[in-house]
Amino acid sequence: MSEALIPVQVPPETSAGLPWREQLRQALSALLGVFDRHIGRHGLLRMLAILVVYAAQLTAVFYLAYELRWDFDVPDNYAQQRLTLLLPIVLCKLLMLYSFGQFRTIQSYFGLADFGGVLLSMSILCAVMLGLWFGADVTAAPPRGVILMDFVMSVALLSATRLALRVVRTSSLRGGARPGVGERRIAIIGASDAAEALAKDLLQRRGSGLSPICFVDDHPDRIGRSIHGLPVFGPLEKLPRFAPALRINELIITLAGVAPKRVKEIVELGRQIGASTQIVPSFTQLASGEVRIERSRPVAIEDLLGRAPVNLDGDGIARLLRDRVVLVTGAGGSIGSELCRQILRHSPRQLVMVDQAEIALFEIEQELAGAGHGANLVSLIADVADEPAVSAILARRRPEIIFHAAAHKHVPIMERQPAEALKNNTLATDLLTRLASAHGVGRFVFISTDKAINPTSVMGCSKRLAEMALQARQAAPDNETTFMAVRFGNVLGSSGSVIPVFRRQIAQGGPVTVTHQDMTRYFMTIPEAVGLVLQTGTLGRGGEIFILDMSEPVKIIDLARQMIELSGYKPDLDIEIKITGLRPGEKLYEELRHTDESHELTEHPRIFKLRAGNNRGSAEWLSELREAAATGDGRLIKQTMNRFVPEYRPFVE
Fold this sequence. Notes:
Rossmann fold, elongated, 9-stranded mixed beta sheet
């Protein structure tokens, strides 16, 4: 949509047959263009032109104030006074306008700041003249009536001239409709500041084909009023009743912090009236400069599945991270890279980013360095299963906090390569916990998964074994590191997740493949998940497994239908949904805790704590897993894993 909002040059029309208002507009626009080309680009000429115009206006106003004061019959003594005071007063006014920057502004851009400059400069001079009238010889200043009329007319004329130039400029920007572009009649959802800014921008760009028709809002105090001449209708539920008469074919959501459930309702209302739905960015994004107000975007599945914003203990997270050396493994991945972004907001002394994927690490390094964090970054290529390399990193960098996000997580691939899942997810985690304890790391946060609960896949079981290894390390007699794990479900848009797959399949025309019509998954956004991971770092006392509030699970087939509809297609008509059957290791639904784990509240309402009853020593059973992984025998590896995680139900071909 943003492309449609870029001003487009159109061929000029002949003036013959045009209404006189349009001819006048074109003439004024042409004069404004001549000024810009021949005078406006030269600083001295521009300032002289502004000086002449201002001087002429102020002279006329001062002269007229005397005429109005005596009803166009000015006594001779006051006529002489007018001639005596005219030059010094006009010069003083020009000096005040210059002092308040009115000669430097672009004359056709007139806003409240410019009006304030005009008003304040004229007010100061008015106050000085009144002071002279009251405190000195009355011949040193004009009469009070003249002073007040001169003040009012000066402000009015200067402002009206600037406003007229702005109207001409705005009118010239609108231009005619772009050839071949149909009009899109827009209803703006919400009557907020963002909605007002969007409407103003669209009204100035009529040539783009975007035509705001009305606002729609639920607030009773706004319904029935207008903004920029556009009526405010409401409440939102009545949209299907009045939309047909207005011929609305597009909705733009501008509501700040709108809940995903509400976005879904608006999208459904738009579907009922045959209108597409867009959403504008939040004011946080606008303030950061990430996007501009007119750059709305289509509603995405993340808007429908996301949840209310999480309130984090920012001070607690800042105390945890500020001026500390923090190490993140898997820093190039979806979770790892977002961890790096959020950690840097809390001013660590140094952020050590470790990943074995060179390209992914390079990309996050370039992004963060471009944001001004280059001095705090250390990027290292290393395999977390490589003991000498990891030991050297810990010895040299001396991290105080480790966030361990490196993992193999793709279920079907790990099912075919159980040795790699075991080595990278379980044994490497055990190695990292041992080295962290040996090098005096203060806190260690391990990123786990809901697939570790009653696992049916190698990936899930390898994560469960990693949790057990972490808890065993916590219980070691010589350990002083605080270890903790965090479990959560799928994150929206992460690499390898279902949403990018569905997007690609829809772009290819289908079919969209769903393994089972009853399959459900928990979803949360990457920033939300990472924010809660950082929060758990402040809560752990050692050995806990934290779970995040994942809200309600979502049926994957419903997710597929919503994504198809958001793309402008109809499920099973335009895009086929194909049921392919469960793959090895997949579950119909995910769980968040074992039956033998106690479920406790924490200081944060969206984070819960689990405590397992069995913290066995790690040496014996981890040695057996290490030996099984070395054989590369998939059947043996799964059987060995099943011995230590009895609830694991392995898929054996």
